[in-house]
Amino acid sequence: MHTIPIGFDVLKANAEIARNNHNNLDRHDITAFNIMGAIGSGKTLLIEKTIQKLGDKYRIGAIAGDVIARIDAARFEKYGIPTIGLNTGKECHLDAHLVEHGLSGMPLGSLDLLFIENVGNLICPTDYELGEHKRVVVVSVSEGDDIVEKHPLIFGTADLIIVNKIDIAEAVNADADKMVKDARMINPRIDTLKMSLKTGEGLDEWISFVEKSHGRQGMDI
After folding, report:
1. Going by C-beta distance under 8 Å and a sequence separation of 6 or more, which residues neighbour residue 203?
2. CATH number, residue 44
3. What tens digit of pLDDT does each residue of 21-54 get?
4. Is 95 helix (H, G, I), strand (E, B) or coil?
5. Cβ atoms within 10 A of the Cβ of 105, count?
6. What residues contact residue 5 under an 8 Å CB cut-off, 6+ apart?
7. Which of 62, 110, 185, 208 is deepest in the core (most CB within 10 A)?
8. What is the distance between the alpha carbons of residues 35 and 41, in angstroms, rounded to a whole number?
9. Domain for residue 5, yes or no?
10. How do residues 117-152 score in pLDDT, each as one tens digit?
């Protein structure tokens, strides 16, 4: 009897493609942000607000990843920016290969910033690098202030956590400070930001993070 090896290291293969994506973005001086978070956390609106704030200063592109991506993609397209929708079908995350295809359809020579909206999920995207420069996780107080400690892995690799919807924290009996503390316990190097996209609180700090990240583009390799 012969044993036939059929194993394939999916994550290793993904990491290799992600590295190629990263290098491709660097060649074009583009800083990419992987925006992760659960459904309803505010990912799409965050990108929209960023386009509104920085669209006159930087050339921005967006990739919308979802089971059916056209809905969020349409929200970005209305600002006249290059946008690619990536349908994941049954998959609950983007991977580097899908993003590679997305990049092939983007005018990379005409972009400064790229925002990649991942599928709404706090578990599946964790292990899949895309080639991004910064990994950002958006959580909402409406998810409960124990949401961070329930999903430690995604915060362990994140560069920034945004605790959104703090304007309703009292109404939903959530402690935004606890969520920040939990993130820092998991990852002492993580940047943290409390935000309300409704009132605008924290938005300027986010914009500063984006611009600072672009200034350091390429240094995370």
Report:
1. 49, 53, 195, 197
2. 3.40.50.300
3. 999 999 999 999 999 999 999 999 999 999 999 9
4. coil
5. 12
6. none
7. 62
8. 11
9. no
10. 999 999 999 999 999 999 999 999 999 999 999 999
